[in-house]
Amino acid sequence: MAVPLYEAKADLFRTLGHPTRVRVLELLAERPRQVKELLAEIGIEASNLSQQLSVLRRAGLVTASRQGVAVTYAAASPQIADLLAAGRTILASVWSDTEGMLHELRETS
Asked: Is 5-108 in CATH node 1.10.1040.10?
């Protein structure tokens, strides 16, 4: 039986609900990277990164390829960059509304 679309979307957003996974996707949206590059950029333990990459891989958001001992990860779809950009746009809008309200509150005090 097929999963309803709204449930699949909820699973996607749950997968995105971890800061390390979002950061990994931001980096991979720019270009594919080896694990050692991700470790240097993110600054977490290798075991933690491995766990987060496994979650992203199971969700189909990243792909992995091996060349010798080096593993390179890439975003599975160019739309991942669009999704991250949409999140940034939404946050900017929400935060600007909040900033405006704070300014208004300060002026009326």
From this structure: no
Instruction: Report the predicted TM-score, pTM, of the whole model to 2 decimal places.
Output: 0.85
How is residue 41 written in tokens? 């950029």
Segment 12-71, tens digit of pLDDT: 999 999 999 999 999 999 999 999 999 999 999 999 999 999 999 999 999 999 999 999
Q: Which one-letter amino acid corresponds to residue 64?
A: A
Instruction: Name the DSSP letter for residue 48.
Output: H
Strand-pairing partners, residue 71, are 66
CA dihedral 102, 104, 108, 109 (to 10 degrees): 10
